[in-house]
Design goal:
Blueprint: H1 2-39, H2 45-55, H3 65-113, E1 119-122, E2 127-128, E3 133-134, H4 138-150, E4 155-159, H5 171-174, H6 182-197, E5 205-212, E6 215-222, E7 230-232, E8 237-243, E9 246-250, H7 252-271
Parallel strand pairs: 1-4
Antiparallel strand pairs: 2-3, 4-6, 5-6, 7-8, 8-9
Helix pairs in contact: 1-2, 1-3, 4-6
Length: 272
Amino acid sequence: MNNISLNIKTIVLQIVIGAGIFYFLVHPFTMVLYWFEFSDTPFSFLKFQNILSKRFLQSFSFNMRGMSGLLTLFGAVLGLISSLFWIQIKKKNNLIGTHQRLLRRNIAEIIVDGENERVEFKSSVRYDYFRKITNRELELVIAKTIVGFMNAKGRKLILGVDDDGNILGLEKDFLTLKHKNKDGYEREIFRIISTYLGHKACFGNHIFFYEVKERLICVIDVEPSIEPVYVSNGKDTTFYVRTGNATYPLFVKETVDYLKTHSHHLTNNSIV
């Protein structure tokens, strides 16, 4: 009932506002503009002010009831339409907010459950917590983990969480970037994927940000790939796969055997 009552108040308020705007503002201004049009007088702001002051009260006279009534009705209809749009937007925002809260709770539960075959934690993308410096070598670790997921069953790489599930957040990582915000962080992740895995791999990774325990974390939702994906660091090209709660490189023969064994499984994963 509270929502219904609030919606009714919103509708009534916006109808009144719309009708008032058209009756007290649009109507007098319209009369002045009509006067300029029919009197064939050159328009000027000074002249407009003079005519408005003279015709303002006249616009509310009984003789102008037809025009004022029509404009007031038009304003009320616009107010009604805008209120309905406002209610729908508010309802959508509430649904999005509820969905986000459920997702945050889901992510928090995933973190509590710890790392496994489909979940991996990484403290950062660039900031080295042990050496207390920016370490670009960590990019390769991120790339290997993503490839491992893509060549297996996919799922989530969570950034800003250490191996024990402690929430570290992204603040120190942000400080290593040119654009120290979520957009800059997302661009950096896609740059890493594009550099080490290729541009095509970007389409199989989706990035989301959540606030857990008042700290921002990043979740990379990795889709399994039908085709094998490799990490190329300029010198070597290596196939990685996720097994258990770790990512392992495979040699050429192992890679061939793995692809033969798992090609059907990967295809089924992509369909699901």
